[in-house]
Amino acid sequence: MPSEHRFDPNFTDAVINATGPGATPRVRQLTAGLIRHLHDFARENELTVDEWMAGVELLNEAGRMSDSKRNEGQLVCDVLGLESLVDEITYKLASTAASEPTATAILGPFYRHDAPQLPMGASIVSGLDNTEGDCTWMHGTVTDFRTGAPIAGAVVDVWHTAPNGLYEQQDPDQPEMNLRGRFTTGADGKYAFYCLRPVPYPIPFDGPAGRILKALDRHPFRPAHIHFLLTAPGYKPIVTQIFDRKSKYIEDDAVFAVKDSLVVDFVPFEGDAKAEFELPYDFKMASFEDAKKGPVEGTTEESASM
Ligand code: BEZ
Ligand code: FE
């Protein structure tokens, strides 16, 4: 173990103290923490110039590979678990409460903000051979997590990959906006649409994120999942995913995003000639007021802070 005093003990403070008076308190706090952790990391591991430069090259390459259809920097963070950790920190709301909003999960790099607005009950599947993929009737209610009341005007924005494991923007053979849609609830808070039962797929691994996975002897696969962004007037948006319990990699997601409460069952569906499976799922949202309050009444301080 290298002794702390093999290196100038005042160096890190000198770098942090170079911050000028114009830096905002948050910038000052974040950069001081980052500098301290980076310097400790370098000292503890006796980082060599070659190793540091390999890291710089990896960041540069991630930047060069990124464009409007690919976010390699985000992928690098994902395989290191950083997006999942930041998601947990940002959205945590008394996870032991008796009643709680739908858990969050990472956005990932494939969201598009302008998915088509579709009529309730429509299909998000376009341009795929009807025999490809298992058609699924997904439906449920969007409610207020505290009162249980249905939420009108909630927008359920959904996206998932095609059976070949690619999102439409990764795949020139898919029509624009395939497997994406936005559905707005009425007074009953209900939503419904046709989609496909998703498949596990590898995150892009032909760049720095893939090289990290290879060096760590890890696979690039995510378990089958469907992404959602829920918004509603007066409510805190929810970014989440639901995961197929039967999917390969459910215990071993390359980006560490699976949470127990988000694991669902696709049920064989008899009542509809179009759909092989049914997927009932209700979303629970927190109003901005409740999101500030935290745990529901009846939850002890102790259990809420566990
Ligand atoms: C996704 O689920 O779309 C995703 C998440 C993290 C990295 C790559 C893809
Ligand atoms: Fe995904």
From TrEMBL:
GO terms for molecular function: catechol 1,2-dioxygenase activity; ferric iron binding. One of its GO terms (biological process) is catechol-containing compound metabolic process. Residues 107-285 form the Intradiol ring-cleavage dioxygenases domain. InterPro entries: 1_2-HQD/HQD, Catechol_dOase_N, Intradiol_dOase_C, Intradiol_dOase_core, Intradiol_RC_Dioxygenase. Pfam families: Dioxygenase_C, Dioxygenase_N. Keywords: Dioxygenase, Iron, Metal-binding, Oxidoreductase. This is Aromatic compound dioxygenase. The lineage of its organism: Eukaryota, Fungi, Dikarya, Ascomycota, Pezizomycotina.
